[in-house]
């Protein structure tokens, strides 16, 4: 009998794939909004084929009350993609990704407001040190840091805000399975991105050469359709701490891709900033085990 894939292995694979996203996006010469739309369409079509093949149906009666939240989170996901793709255009993949990984810090600060949770001293320290990391990444005091670089960081932080919104909205969604939730979020993203693309860039697929088409299909089908399924399926089976630790494979791979394959520079100060963001965000998510006597 064929053994099911290890949830840990599934999460590792998904994080490695996510980390290579910038490499493929750089080779797709369409607007960020258009790319986000195609990404959502391709991924939604792939999941639709999967539902038909496995004879799955979405229990709309059961999830009716949560549909507005699902649609809203899908809209946030779509604009999250747009801003992340814009960040890739204006700064390096590594800096854009590290800025994007400020999202958990935003969630930490938002939770006391939304859920009446109190921030601990540890959380305040993590927030302060992660914010310092962002300051170091911007290259404050470095005259070589141009306006494009700062704009890229701003887009990355904007993407982080929308990603934080997706995380927070999902906390209110309890009756929808991961794969059904993802499909409906893709549909919501498509519905909002179609008019957005119509009034901004329009359809420019004619610009794509063979490399562009291959990269677009990889981003839509692999990075989004397949990898999101692996990601959400693994999260259901893994403890939160282990998932949090493994999720940092994504930015580490992105930095390696940026420096080694794209030949983009990363200053020592930016490296320190990135380590502050990733290190203190990880520390914030990991709670020590309580020893039980006896």
Automatic annotation (TrEMBL):
<feature type="domain" description="EamA">
    <location>
        <begin position="151"/>
        <end position="280"/>
    </location>
</feature>
<feature type="transmembrane region" description="Helical">
    <location>
        <begin position="182"/>
        <end position="199"/>
    </location>
</feature>
<comment type="similarity">
    <text>Belongs to the EamA transporter family.</text>
</comment>
<dbReference type="Pfam" id="PF00892">
    <property type="entry name" value="EamA"/>
</dbReference>
<feature type="transmembrane region" description="Helical">
    <location>
        <begin position="150"/>
        <end position="170"/>
    </location>
</feature>
<feature type="transmembrane region" description="Helical">
    <location>
        <begin position="66"/>
        <end position="85"/>
    </location>
</feature>
<protein>
    <submittedName>
        <fullName>DMT family transporter</fullName>
    </submittedName>
</protein>
<keyword id="KW-0812">Transmembrane</keyword>
<dbReference type="InterPro" id="IPR037185">
    <property type="entry name" value="EmrE-like"/>
</dbReference>
<feature type="transmembrane region" description="Helical">
    <location>
        <begin position="97"/>
        <end position="115"/>
    </location>
</feature>
<feature type="transmembrane region" description="Helical">
    <location>
        <begin position="243"/>
        <end position="262"/>
    </location>
</feature>
<keyword id="KW-0472">Membrane</keyword>
<feature type="transmembrane region" description="Helical">
    <location>
        <begin position="268"/>
        <end position="286"/>
    </location>
</feature>
<feature type="transmembrane region" description="Helical">
    <location>
        <begin position="211"/>
        <end position="231"/>
    </location>
</feature>
<feature type="transmembrane region" description="Helical">
    <location>
        <begin position="9"/>
        <end position="29"/>
    </location>
</feature>
<feature type="transmembrane region" description="Helical">
    <location>
        <begin position="124"/>
        <end position="144"/>
    </location>
</feature>
<feature type="domain" description="EamA">
    <location>
        <begin position="9"/>
        <end position="138"/>
    </location>
</feature>
<feature type="transmembrane region" description="Helical">
    <location>
        <begin position="35"/>
        <end position="54"/>
    </location>
</feature>
<keyword id="KW-1133">Transmembrane helix</keyword>
<dbReference type="InterPro" id="IPR000620">
    <property type="entry name" value="EamA_dom"/>
</dbReference>
């Amino acid at each position: 009998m064929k053994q099911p894939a290890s949830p840990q292995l599934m999460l590792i694979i998904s994080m490695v794939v996510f980390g290579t996203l910038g490499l493929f996006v750089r080779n797709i010469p369409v607007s960020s909004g258009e790319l986000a739309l195609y990404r959502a369409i391709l991924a939604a079509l792939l999941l639709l084929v999967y539902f038909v093949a496995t004879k799955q149906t979405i229990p709309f009666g059961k999830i009716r009350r949560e549909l507005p939240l699902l649609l809203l989170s899908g809209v946030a996901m779509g604009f999250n993609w747009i801003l992340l793709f814009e960040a890739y255009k204006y700064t390096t993949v590594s800096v854009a990704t590290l800025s994007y990984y400020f999202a958990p810090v935003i969630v930490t600060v938002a939770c006391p407001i939304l859920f009446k949770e109190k921030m601990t001293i540890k959380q305040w320290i993590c927030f302060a040190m992660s914010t310092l990391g962002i300051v170091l990444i911007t290259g404050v005091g470095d005259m070589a840091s141009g306006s494009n670089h700062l704009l890229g960081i701003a887009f990355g932080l904007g993407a982080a805000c929308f990603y934080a919104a997706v995380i927070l909205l999902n906390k209110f969604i309890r009756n929808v399975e991961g794969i059904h939730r993802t499909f409906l979020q893709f549909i919501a993203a498509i519905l909002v991105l179609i008019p957005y693309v119509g009034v901004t860039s329009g359809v420019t697929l004619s610009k794509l050469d063979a490399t562009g088409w291959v990269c677009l299909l990889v981003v839509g089908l692999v990075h989004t359709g397949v990898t999101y399924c692996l990601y959400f399926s693994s999260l259901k089976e893994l403890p939160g701490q282990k998932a949090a630790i493994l999720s940092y494979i994504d930015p580490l791979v992105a930095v390696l891709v940026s420096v080694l394959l794209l030949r983009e520079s990363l200053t020592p100060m930016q490296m320190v900033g990135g380590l502050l963001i990733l290190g203190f965000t990880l520390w914030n998510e990991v709670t020590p085990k309580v020893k039980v006597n006896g």
